[in-house]
Structure formats: C-alpha cells, structure tokens
What we know:
- By secondary structure, this protein is an alpha/beta fold.
- The protein has 20 helices and 25 strands.
- The strands form five sheets. Strands 18, 19, 20, 21, 22, 23, 24 and 25 form an eight-stranded mixed beta sheet that branches.
- It starts with 6 loop residues before the first strand and ends in a 17-residue tail after the last helix.
- The model has no long low-confidence stretch (mean pLDDT 91).
Amino acid sequence: MSSAGDVHAITSPLGGTVVAVLRHAGDVVAATSTVLVVESMKMEHPVAAGVAGTLVQVSPAVGDQVRVDDVLATVAATDHVVPHTDATTDDTDLDHIRPDLAAVLGRKAVTLDASRPEAVTKRHTGGHRTARENIAALTEPRSFVEYGSFPVAAQRGRRELEELIAMTPADGIVTGIGRIGAQAQQRSECLVLAYDYTVLAGTQGYFNHKKTDRALRIARAQGLPVVLLAEGGGGRPGDVDATHIVASGLDVETFASMARLSGRVPTVAVVTGRCFAGNAALAGVCDVLIATRDSTIGMAGPAMVEGGGLGRFAAEEIGPMSVQTRNGVVDVVVDDDEAAMAAARDYLSYFQGAQGDWRAGDQRRLRHLVPEKRKTPYDVRAVVRALADEDAVFELRAAFAPGAITALVRIEGVPMGLIANNPGHLGGAIDSDAADKLARFLQLCDAHGLPIVSLCDTPGFMVGPDAERTGSVRHVSRLFVIGANLRVPVVTVVLRKAYGLGAQAMAGGGFRETAATLAWPTGEVGAMGLEGAVRLGYATELAALTDDDARARRFDELVERAYEQGRAINAAMLGEIDEVIDPAETRDRIRTALAGKAIDANRAYRFVDTW
C-alpha cells in the first residue's frame, strides 16, 4: 500500500509492443487510469497506474518493444481522491445496438418469414404453414434455439450472393433444439429438422446436408429425440459450387446418421405436402411417420420417374395417402399442419415419463364390452379406450393390417404400448401384415422402454393357400423372435379366444413369458381353434355318421364340450394362466404386474425395423 510521496513503478504485465501512450509526466491519474496500451499476440492490453498520484515519468514511446516487468512509468502517490478520468464509464446504454451486432441481426432477419412475404403468402395459399410457423407450433414458446441460420445454397457460381441470401435462407432447412411438451422437463428437449419448401422446394443441398449432419451428431451425443419435418423434393442438382469437390455426393453421412439413431432416441417424421427421394428416405427411417391428407410420399418425384422411362405422372399420383396409409408406410394421417404438429407433440409425450394428472372412466364398463355369446362380434377399440386413461390412446397404422391394433396408451399416467387382436377382421386371426405390424410395434416399445399390454382374442395365425402365398411362415415367426428377446415386460389379457401359436405370439412366445397372463371370464384357450381341433380329433367318429343332421349335431356337441374344457377358469385351475379376473380390475392388475419392472439391461440394444 502506497503512502503520499511514495514513488510507484508501473511495470509491463507482458511482453509486446507499446501501441498507445495515453498519459504523460505531470498528469494526475487515478489508480484505474490507463497510462499505456501494450499489444501482444494481436490483443491490446491496457496498463493502469495502479495508485492515484502524479506521473513522474513515462519511458516508452509508441512502437517500443517491452518485456515482462519492464518499468514503463513512475507515479508519485497522493492521499487525495483522484476521480477516474478514462473515457469509458459505467453509464452504458444497454439498449444501444452496436454496428457489429446490428449487421448480424440484419442478416438474421433476412432468414425469417417476415422478410419473405411473397413466399409465405404462396405457402398459405396452398393450405400449409411455413417451416418456421410449424416449428413455432411444435415447440414451447421461446424455447427453440436455431443452429446454422446463415448458410445459403452452394450456387455462388451461377447467382449473386445477395440473391442467394434473399432467396435461399438457411439453405432450405431450419435446424435447432427446442422443448416439445413439458410432461417431464428434463426429457422435453428435442432436435428439430425442418425442410423449408419455400426454398428450392425443400431440396437437400450441400450446406443443407452439412447442417443436418451436424444436428444429428448433436442429437446422438445428447440423446435428443428428433422431429423431422420432411416435406421436400430430395437431392438438389443445382449446387454448382460443390461440383468441383463432389462427384456423386454418395459419401454424405446424413442417411447413416439418421439410421444410427434408430432405437436410441424416439424419431418422428412429419410430412405436410410433397416428400420425395432423399427426404422420403429420411422420413422412412423414423419410428413414426405422420402426414396430412394431401401429402404424397415416394422414393422419386415425377421428374425422376419420367426420366427412368416409367411414364409421366402428377406429383399427387405418386404415393398419395390413399395408398400410403393402407400399405402401412404412414402411421398417422391428419387433416392439416396444425393437427400434424399436435400429433407429433402427442406422440412424443408418451416418451417423456409418467403424467401425474390423469383420469379414467368407470372400469365397470369393461364387464359389458365383450358379449357372452362367443360368436358375437364387438369393438375392441372400445375396450382399449375404456381401459386406458381418458384421452390417452394414440393409435398407429390404423388403416394397415386391420386385424391388429397397435397403440400407445397411459394407465394411471404411465405410458405403455398396447397390442390387440381385432375380432372384427378375420375373426382376429394374425395374417402376415398383422404379424409385421405387431412385431415392429413391439420393437418400438422395447427400444424406448415402454412396457406392453397385450389384449388377446385370436383363433391363431391365418392359414390356407392364400395365407402361404404371402410368406406367412416367415412373417408370423417375427413375433416369436422379437417377443423372446424383449427387454420390457409384457402383460397379456385374454379377452376371448387364445388359441394355438397365435395366442403364444400375443404373449411374447408363451403364457409363461409374461409378467402376468390374465383372462376375463369370457376367455377360452386351446392348442388350436375348437372347430379345427374337433374335426381333427374326431374325424373318424364324425365320418361314420352318414346322416348330415346327426353329424352336425354331434359336431356342435363336441365343440361345446371342448369350449367348456377350454374355459379360462379351467386353464387357471391347471396353472396355465395366472388368474381369471373381473374385467373391472384389469387396470389395477396391469399396474401391479408392472410395478418395479425395469428394462432388462442385460439384453442388447436393438434398432427398430423400418417395416
């Protein structure tokens, strides 16, 4: 600490060049006053007086080289308070926008919808929102943080830069991270990739791919779910700047990067219009594909189809929803962009943990949804709705393989996967399409840790020459391979029929493979369908009856006896199922069976098949 009259040496804090001398001998300085500025490694470092007083001398001149601890000046200390006299003060105008920031903000503004009214109007006229409008609807307010807003199309060789900045903002894809839903705050951050159809028809350009690759690496590193707004025309041939460094473009990592996320994080594709080629391939990799009714999705657009000599088609003729929902490509079809974003949010909510706020209908209703007469049809979706929490059923691929139901549900707020046979189609028999639908859904639930509820009402796998022409042996066997290797628990509830291999497949491979195998009073079980079992087991006896009416009566008697023997309560007496329950208890039984059941970490990670 200096006393009045003491001479204090001002030394150089580092080696460098003196670039400014701001005070001279005789000047009165405050302790914080800058006396000189020394530049080192391209940075200018102010050297303060250190004590208040009067400068005795200032040795170096501008341009002199100094070393660490060289004496640059001396100051005679004083006891008087010397006011700070540097030009900089704490009276900063926090609302002032400096020129460097103004330039960045101006450039950023060009990328936003407000700067492109004609493109926005055209989009709205076509009945759709812009990419940024959809992101705003998808994510929580003010939560979306964009990555890579400044690239433009790699077309400087054919267009002026100012035109590219104005016409190709973000190179046709908006990427970033935002919160989608708030069921569990720590699990609501998601990566969003939104192709911008107003920019070169949402095609995939050179920098577009670089942005996508960067974003997907972040998603994998941080375990972020991905939402892909996939509308767009596929590869972009017009990026001439890249032609001198790219021959084929087949070495891009985008498609492999997206595929590597399969089974690691939930992935959702949303299509709100035309989606072809590379855009469609990325959508097809995702766990779930949501699309508006006016969308078309195909592995090539009209130009590529015609170029391949396959004919001339309008875009609306290539993969319309009338085709892509029935064949299972699209999981959920909705009316418009607003509904599509809502569906994506709803879907992701099933992977964000349990909800504390839930309601359920009167469970006594379940006692009356399956008729007592075993041949009377019923609506299995009504069973699903009654069993789940209110407004907590999200069905996938409803128009494909109608003999099987696959849905995400919540029971007491806990998300689960649910599969069910639909007795309204083929009596609930599992054909090739139904087996594929069920098998892939089991993979989806297993990959993301959702326990599974299986509502069984099946006479078994579909049989006969027509079934075998579909390759059913291989298709239905997927259920055994996947079921036997599930990491998540399964609870099977027999609603009515549980016959043969099909019933075993609905229980992960067998009634002893589940966390619980339950049945309602209407349940009936057997090694094969009753009628078939009677025809095989009593073929000789029935053939011996020459009177047709007598044979029919005897057949009915044998079937009824087999039915009595196969009642679920008899199977429970023999320990083949765990319990026959009051249907109204089903929710309680499911939650109890799954209490404390965690994913089996000893079973290896698996991706989710695209089919």
